[in-house]
């Protein structure tokens, strides 16, 4: 591996939320589960069938 690129650890990129147009804004961890609070980074596109 000649060209290694490093970036700071980021929950949004680790969970690949940026591919979904989301960014992580908070998290809650407990023994049973982990909850990630997300926000849209761009406005969601309307449904092509119903326009909603």
Biggest sheet statistics: 2 strands, antiparallel
Shape: flat
Which parts are unreliable, with pLDDT below 50 for 5 consecutive residues or more?
Answer: none
Tell me the domain tally. 1
Give the count of helical stretches: 1
Question: Could you tell me how far the N terminus lies from the C terminus, measured between alpha carbons in angstroms?
Answer: 46 Å
The strand count comes to 2
Radius of gyration over C-alpha positions, nearest whole angstrom: 16 Å
Q: Helicity, in percent?
A: under 10%
Structural class: mainly beta
Q: What's the average pLDDT? A: 84
Helix-strand pattern: HEE
Strand content: 25-35%
Strand order of the largest sheet: 1-2
Explain the overall architecture:
With 52 residues, the protein is mainly beta. It has one domain. Helices cover 8% and strands 29% of the residues. It has one helix and two strands, in the order H-E-E. It has one helix at residues 11-14; strands spanning 22-29, 34-40. The protein has a two-stranded antiparallel sheet. Strand 1 (22-29) and strand 2 form a beta hairpin. The radius of gyration is 16 Å and the shape is flat. The mean pLDDT is 84.
List keywords for this structure.
single chain; about 50 residues; mainly beta; 1 helix; 2 strands; about 30% strand; flat
């Amino acid at each position: 591996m000649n060209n290694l690129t490093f970036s700071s650890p980021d929950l949004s990129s680790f969970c690949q939320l940026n591919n979904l147009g989301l960014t992580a804004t908070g998290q809650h961890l407990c023994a049973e589960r982990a909850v990630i609070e997300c926000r849209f980074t761009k406005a969601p596109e309307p449904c092509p069938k119903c326009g909603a």
